[in-house]
Design a protein that fits this description.
Blueprint (H helix, E strand, L loop, with lengths): L2 E9 L10 H18 L6 E7 L12 E6 L7 H4 L10 E6 L4 E7 H5 L12 H18 L34 H13 L14
Parallel strand pairs: 1-2, 1-3, 3-5
Antiparallel strand pairs: 4-5
Helix pairs in contact: 1-4, 1-5
The protein binds zinc ion (ZN).
The site of zinc ion has 5 residues, from α4.
Length: 204
Amino acid sequence: MPQALKIFLVNKAGELSGHFVAASRKACGDRLKGYFEATIRGVARYDTVSIIWDGKASDPVAGDFVCYLLTAPADSIAATKATGDVTLGASGSTLLSLADKAVISEVYLRAIVQGGDPRGNDTTNKEALVANCILHELAHNLLDATTPNVLDVHKVKDGVICRETGDRPLQGTDQPGPADNAAFQAGFTRRAAGVKQYTSGMPG
Ligand SMILES: [Zn+2]
């Protein structure tokens, strides 16, 4: 029986001082839903996509994703779980917690929405840009956060979202294309048991 692909977005940034209110979260989630509806095309295990903002730690099942929306890298959950030195991404990070045997994905809203400045103006297409950054982190989550890697997210040929972002950050005008969708489809096939998600940061 096909299942819904559930994507749990855990908002720990509040309304980001009015810069990412409920309407923005809704727009972001709607866009992300559309993205994933394209990635699951042809994937037998999934039939629909659900974006869930009010999930509890016990809700995710195998094959679901969890992404934490934090204000800033200083709030990083991943950093507290890393073994050894960790370098966080500018707009988000994904890594395996060895202790939890689970993958943590997180994005940093202030960096994405306001250029990292609490007094900064809104980024153009902020809702789309947050969705793009979440999609990028969930690509890491599925494809290269655990070994054996399915593929290196930063080396996807013709990837729009799945690409190196250090020298050229994602933009709100970027949209996933065939190469990004194919990368996810390869991941869904290769990770037949899904990727265990870190849920301890979700409400109990
Ligand atoms: Zn990356």
